[in-house]
Amino acid sequence: MAAGTPRVFVSHLAGVPVFDPNGDQVGRVRDLVAMLRVGGKPPRLLGMVVEVVSRRRIFLPMTRVTGVESGQVITTGVVNMRRFEQRPTERLVLGELLDRRVRLKETDEEVTVLDVAIQQLPARRDWEIDKVFVRKGRGGALRRKGETLTVEWSAISGFSLEEHGQGTESLVATFERLRPTDVANALHHLTPKRRAEVAAALDDDRLADVLEELPGDDQVEILGKLKEDRAADVLEAMDPDDAADLLSELPEADKERLLALMRPDDAADVRRLLSYEERTAGGLMTTEPIILRPDATVADALARVRQQDLSPALAAQVYVCRSPDETPTGKYLGTVHFQRLLRDPPFTLVSSIVDSDLVPLRPDTPLPAVTSYLAAYNMVSVPVVDRSGSLLGAVTVDDVLDHLLPEDWRETDFLGEEEITGGL
């Protein structure tokens, strides 16, 4: 949603229908899921608990919500039907935050929470609880006497993690301010028991990002301690090449069982990557580069490059291909680099500025040749194309570095694990 999204009070969302992009009803909102944060920061809204037709309650991440408007919620249409299970760091907004007795920091007066408001952050997909609607005086939410007022989340005490003691919940909240690489470094130095507790408390997307930065042994250990349904969800959230690398470390039976639990499209990408030798372009590549058709414009390309979830290496160029525009694509036509996109008018067709001079790599290209290619042409990402001319994916410089650095390079203490974990 765009910047300036209207604020929504959560009581207005209880029971509203949830629709897919085609207008078909998926279910109804029964609650919202938030994660408290340290330092009095507004809680991050993770998603919604949706009751589907079968009366099963599932989790709908906010990243898959495209609209909250006029008494309805619109989704991307991609819904995971596995039953919702609340995690230790999660709070049910309607079930646990409303009708709660808290205090106004300025006057130390006790008040009752009647409602909270959510709003999407400008230029981001994240949602936060930023306002609290409270009633002064004693009594629950049904009591009608007493002055009511709306205050900032930071004006209230009684919610914060600090007031509930230290532990896994507070540690996870502390990790929120860190990059995945730094979280992985800290997680690597925790005890196995605490590492499993923290992994269980992280949401799927965050755990996927962290797993991608961990050594293989830690990845296998953490994945093995998750329930199989959740392990499959986390694998779906990982980049396909990283998920394939992790699955390749597992026994064949475990690998096949997890692949069977994944969404078919995600599993197909991973299976394709598993078919290539590890230290080749095919084994190193990601199957999700930015792909555009020849009739796309520079404005279209820049919109895709601006996507928040893209790594800098993948955002450095777009690949122009004929339909279909998902790997394996139609005929690969060439590459348009980010700098070229900045130099041309927004209405320019990408097919008119495509760079087709560099020969793409074949999937069986060995790692040394991939490395030489990137160094010789000063590239941060390179296309991988099959013999029929279809784009299969792209190898990025960070994936190459993972295979060139010493095995113990992750042992480097970038921040100091004692500072991050507090000795936990």
Automatic annotation (TrEMBL):
UniProt entry keywords in alphabetical sequence: CBS domain
Protein name: Magnesium transporter MgtE N-terminal domain-containing protein
SUPFAM superfamilies on file: CBS-domain pair, MgtE N-terminal domain-like, PRC-barrel domain
Keyword Electron transport: no
Domain CBS: 354-412
Alphabetized Pfam families for the sequence: CBS, MgtE_N, SH3_actinomycetes
Domain of life: Bacteria
CDD domains: CBS_pair_Mg_transporter
